[in-house]
Amino acid sequence: MKKCLICDSLIEPFVSFGRMPIANGFLQADQFQEEYFFELAAGFCPECTMVQLIEQPEPQKMFHENYAFYSSTSTRMAAHFQELAGRVKDSYMKSKDPFVVEIGSNDGITLRHFAAAGFRHLGVEPSANVAEAARKKGVQTVCQFFDENVAREILGAHGPADVFLGANVMCHISTLHSVVAGIKLLLKPEGVLIFEDPYLGDIIQKTSYDQIYDEHAFYFSLRSLTFLFERHGMEVIDVMPQDVHGGSMRYTVGRKGAHDIAGSVELLRERENALGLHDPATYHRLRENIERSRDELMNLLGKLKKQGSRVAGYGATSKSTTVINYCGITPELVEFIGDTTPIKQGKFSPGMHIPVRPYADFENNHPNFALLFAWNHVAEIMEKERQFLANGGRWIVYVPRVEIL
Ligand code: SAH
Ligand code: TMP
Ligand code: ZN
C-alpha cells in the first residue's frame, strides 16, 4: 500500500491504466528497444482527499534537455498567459522594484511580459531546451528543479518575492511540501502565490481521464489544497476557474490572515461538497466512466477500420499517451498524428509508436476522420480547420463523451 504524499495516510487506488510510457517521450525508431515503462494508476486519500499517482517516474526521466512541450506553440495559451501577466502586473507588482518568480516557466510564455516591462523576474525551469528558448526572449532563467533549497539560494541572490507564479507545474512535483515551504520562505509577508492546474472537478465531470499521466503527480481540489496549505500556515484567498487545458483552476494563496478571502472560495467549497470530491464512491464512478469511454472509443475505431475509413490523430499531446496506450490504439487504427511542434515531427508516439507527422501531411491528404487528441484546443482548431470539414472530414472526440461531431 502506498502512502499519501501530503498526509502520510494510506491511499486507496481507484484506477489503473496498465503499462505506460513517458507521456512526452516521443521517440525515434532506434530508441524503441530502450523505451521506459511504468505502471500508471491513481488513488484517493480518504484523509486529506488528495488524488494522486500511485507511482511517478523520477523527474529527470520527464524533464530534461529534450523536453517536447513548448508552451508557446498554442496561440490560445499565449493569450491566456498574457492576460495573467497583465493582471499580476496591475495588482501585485506595486512595491518599489518588485520581484516575480515563476517555476515551470518553460519557454518564457508568461515571464516575457515582465521582462519586456523591465520588472525584476526569475524563471526556474529544469528542462534545458525550453529554458534556453526563454533566455533567447530575454527572460532570466535558472535551469533547476525548484524546492526549498533552491528557494533559499534565490532568496540569498535576489531577496524576497512579491509574487510567485506556477502554471501547470505545482501538480507535477511530488515533493510538494518542500515546494510550498520554499515558496513561503521566498515570499514577502504580504506576497502571493498564484498558480493554476487542471481541476479535479472538471476531470470527474467530463471523464477527462487523459489528464492522468506521468507528469501529473496530483489532481487538485480546493479541499485537498486547503489541507496542504494549512500545514504551512497559508490559505487560499481566491479561486478562478479557467477555460484552458480542459478545465483548470487558478488559486491565489497568501500567508494565513494576511489577506481578505474572496467569496469565490466559499462558493467553490460548497460546489465540491455537492460534487462529492470527498467521497470514495465518486472515484469508483469515475473508474466506471473511464472504462465505458475506452470501450466506446475502441468500438468506434474498430467500426471505422472495418468500413475502410482513414483515421488520423490531431495533436500529439502528452494527454493522448494515456488514451492511446490504455485503449490500445495501434497505427492500424490511427495511421498518423499531425502536430505543429517541430521536435515531435518525424518521431513516433510513446508506447504504441504511431508516426507523428508535420501538419502539412494532414492538410495535403485529409483523412476521413480526425481523432481530436488536442480536444482542449477545440475552438482554436475548428476555426483553423474549416477546409477539413469542407472536404467532408469529420471530427472524433472522447471528452466529455465519445462522439463524431
Ligand atoms: N508553465 C508552462 C509549462 C507547463 S509544463 C505552461 O503552463 O504552459 C511543466 C513545466 O514544469 C515543464 O517545463 C517542466 O520542465 C517544469 N518543471 C517540472 N518540475 C519542476 C520543478 N521542480 N521546478 C520548476 N519547474 C519544473
Ligand atoms: P497540449 O494539449 O498539452 O497543450 O499540447 C498541444 C499539442 O497539440 C502540441 O503538441 C501542439 C499540438 N497542436 C497542433 O498540432 N495543432 C493545433 O492547432 C494546436 C492548438 C495544438
Ligand atoms: Zn492524504
CATH class of the largest domain: Alpha Beta
CATH fold-level topology of the largest domain:
Rossmann fold
**Mean pLDDT figure:** 97
Helix content: 25-40%
User: What distance separates the N and C termini?
Assistant: 42 Å
Backbone structural class: alpha/beta
Stretches where pLDDT falls below 50 for ≥5 residues? none
Number of helices: 14
CATH architectural label of the largest domain: 3-Layer(aba) Sandwich
What is the number of strand segments? 17
CATH homologous superfamily name of the largest domain? Vaccinia Virus protein VP39
* Strand arrangement across the biggest beta sheet: 6-5-4-7-8-11-10
User: Shape from CA axes?
Assistant: globular
- Strand content bin: 15-25%
Total discrete domains: 2
Secondary structure elements and pairings:
Layout: E1 12-21, E2 37-44, E3 51-53, H1 59-62, H2 75-92, E4 99-103, H3 111-116, E5 120-124, H4 128-136, E6 141-142, H5 148-158, E7 161-167, H6 176-186, E8 187-198, H7 200-206, E9 218-219, H8 222-230, E10 234-242, E11 248-255, H9 263-275, H10 280-306, E12 311-314, H11 320-327, E13 337-339, E14 356-358, H12 359-364, E15 369-372, H13 378-384, H14 386-390, E16 394-397, E17 403-404
Parallel strand pairs: 4-5, 4-7, 5-6, 7-8, 12-13, 12-15, 13-14, 15-16
Antiparallel strand pairs: 1-2, 2-3, 3-9, 8-11, 10-11, 16-17
The structure holds S-adenosyl-L-homocysteine, thymidine-5'-phosphate and zinc ion.
The site of S-adenosyl-L-homocysteine has 22 residues, from loops.
